[in-house]
Structure formats: structure tokens, C-alpha cells
Specification:
Layout (H helix, E strand, L loop, with lengths): L6 H22 L19 E5 L2 H11 L3 E5 L6 H9 L10 E5 L11 H4 L4 E5 L11 E4 L2 E7 L9 H18 L4 H26 L7 E4 L4 H6 L4 E5 L8 H14 L4 E4 L8 H4 L6 E4 L10 H15 L1
Parallel strand pairs: 1-2, 1-3, 3-4, 7-8, 7-9, 9-10
Antiparallel strand pairs: 5-6
Helix pairs in contact: 2-5, 5-6, 6-10
């Protein structure tokens, strides 16, 4: 039977087989020269549009959201760029129909409460103070009158590593609810940042164990989250604006009363006013720590809080 197959038939069969194979490969294989054939890049995907009123918060959001978010800072409702930014939200058909606005809360930026309605529902406002569990008021003995106390009002929670840890995790949860597809990404980033905060807090507390005998007095109560979180021995607080003494008398009374309570280190702000604590205590035996509570010159929270802790340690 095989002897009957002619050589010409074999050649024709092979030619047809080869032709069909070529047509199959050309039809099925992707054309890498085709301009419509592209690989999707993460950087081209729509980002979650987020606004905030505080540079430190922007740093936290970027630490959690990284390349998935785009953050803008607006200091007040009169900022014209706020309206322009809000109007652009939802215009991209591939993007999100709403944006997020992480507010400070606790009365620091009450103007953000109306953003949701004024934006026509384009913005979801999230006050960050809601994530803090340790926001109870703390009372300190009044330096000028030992029979009275001074209680903390607004909580400057960014001065506490523990409070910031809670807020970071809150940001991660909120981003995960809003952008469900990247939920695990946000949660993992928040966890990584929390580890950095925990590590810094533990190492700081280990060092401060050697300074438990040092007595600290506070100029105002805004430093309450800082000294409470770092377990600093705080003997009292004072409010210079509540006194009626003239400039010369005020300095004398302040120094005398601080000595009475055994204060050695004073935590105050960077105010250089003649009636500020740093000026009144200049050239005295007290160690004065001047801290900017808002971190105006810093956009990196970890750098800012490390600097605050370092300044405090050098004065103990």
C-alpha cells in the first residue's frame, strides 16, 4: 500500500500542511507591533483624591496610600484651589466619583464639617480625632497656685506616638473601605508605619528610664500628649496669660514658683515674645525646651517627632 504513494503526493501534502500551519500561527499569535497592544502600568491608574488641612496628615496619608493616592493640602475654606480641586473630582470616567478629606477634628478645623454638603457630596470628610481612644483631659497643678489645677483642652495628638499609631491605622481602614481593591495594600502599609512608631517609642522609653527623677513643668497644656506618652515626670503647668503681673514681676514670680515645685525643665513653644516663658527664663538655672507644636518647618512626621524627642532628652 505504502509503495503506491507517489512522491508528488507527499510533496503536495507537506506543502498544504506547512501552509495551514503558517496561517494558524499568524492568526493566533499576538502582533507585538500592534499599537493597540499595551501593558497597563500602575502609575496610569486613577488615584484616590485626598485633601487635608494639616501637612503632618498629608505625610501620614502618603505613608499609607503611597502610589495609590494623590494628596492636596488646604489651610482654609477661602483657598480658591480647594474649589478647583473639588470640581475636578469625578470628571475622569476611570476615576473615583468621590474624594476623601481627612480633617484634624477636635475643633482645629471646624470649617471642614460643611465640606461634604458644600461639595455636593463629592467629598467624604473624616475627622481623625475619632480614632484616638486616649483623649481624656489631664489636670496638672497650677504653678502659680498649688490649690488650683490646669486641665488640657484641645488634644495635640500628633505629639503622641501612640495616638499617631491609632490614627495611621484609622487612615488605613478608611482607605481600604473606600478603595476596596487595594484594601490589603493600605492595611499593610499602615502596619509597617505603626511598627516604626512602636520601635521609636520603645527605644525612647528605654532611654528615659534614666530620667524619671527629673521634674518637668509645662507652659500650657498642649504638651500633655507628649509628656504623657513618654511618661515624663510632670510636676505642674502654668498659663502666663492668666496673671496680672508686670513684665519684671512676672519673671521673678515664675522663677520662684517653679523652684517651689521642684521643676528643673520647662517645655514651652518657640515664641520669642518678651512675656514668653523662654524669654522670662533666659539666663536662669532652668533648662528650657523650645518646641514648635505644629511642625511648621517639617513635612516629614518621623523627622519632626525625632527632633522633638531629641530636644527634650538633651534638656533632662
Amino acid at each position: 500500500m505504502f509503495l503506491r504513494i507517489r512522491k508528488s503526493d507527499v510533496i503536495i501534502f507537506l506543502a498544504v500542511f506547512l501552509l495551514v500551519g503558517i496561517l494558524f500561527v499568524v492568526k493566533e499569535a499576538p502582533n507585538i507591533e500592534n499599537k493597540n497592544y499595551t501593558v497597563v502600568n500602575d502609575s496610569s491608574l486613577p488615584k484616590v483624591q485626598i485633601g487635608t488641612s494639616f501637612p503632618m496628615i498629608a505625610d501620614w496619608i502618603n505613608a499609607v496610600g503611597k502610589d495609590k493616592v494623590e494628596v492636596k493640602i488646604f489651610a482654609s475654606p477661602s483657598d480658591n484651589s480647594l474649589v478647583d480641586w473639588t470640581n475636578k473630582i469625578g470628571k475622569n470616567r476611570r476615576g473615583f466619583s468621590q474624594g476623601l478629606f481627612f480633617a484634624m477634628g477636635d475643633g482645629f478645623d471646624d470649617w471642614t464639617k460643611n465640606l461634604s454638603s458644600s461639595s455636593g457630596g463629592k467629598l467624604v470628610v473624616i475627622p481623625l480625632d475619632q480614632f484616638i481612644s486616649s483623649s481624656s483631659s489631664i489636670a496638672y497643678p497650677d504653678v502659680f497656685n498649688s490649690k488650683k489645677t490646669i486641665s488640657s483642652g484641645q488634644i495635640y495628638y500628633w505629639l503622641s506616638l501612640q495616638d499617631v499609631r491609632q490614627i495611621i491605622q484609622g487612615i488605613g481602614r478608611q482607605l481600604g473601605k473606600f478603595d476596596v481593591g487595594n484594601k490589603e495594600y493600605y492595611i499593610n502599609n499602615a502596619y509597617d508605619y505603626s511598627i516604626k512608631l512602636d520601635t521609636l517609642l520603645r527605644s525612647t522609653l528605654d532611654i528615659l528610664k534614666n530620667f524619671h527623677s527629673e521634674s518637668v513643668a509645662l507652659d500650657g497644656t498642649i504638651w500633655s500628649p507628649l509628656v504623657d506618652n513618654l511618661q515624663i515626670h510632670t510636676v505642674g503647668a502654668f498659663d502666663l496669660s492668666s496673671t496680672q503681673y508686670n513684665l519684671d514681676k512676672l519673671g521673678t514670680v515664675l522663677r520662684t514658683d517653679l523652684k517651689k515645685i521642684g521643676a528643673k525643665t520647662i517645655i514651652t513653644d518657640t515664641n520669642s515674645d518678651p512675656q514668653s516663658a523662654s524669654t522670662l527664663l533666659e539666663n536662669s538655672s532652668f533648662k528650657v525646651v523650645n518646641i514648635d507644636p505644629w511642625g511648621i518647618d517639617s513635612s516629614d512626621y518621623m523627622d519632626y517627632i525625632r527632633g522633638v524627642i531629641s530636644d527634650l532628652m538633651r534638656s533632662l
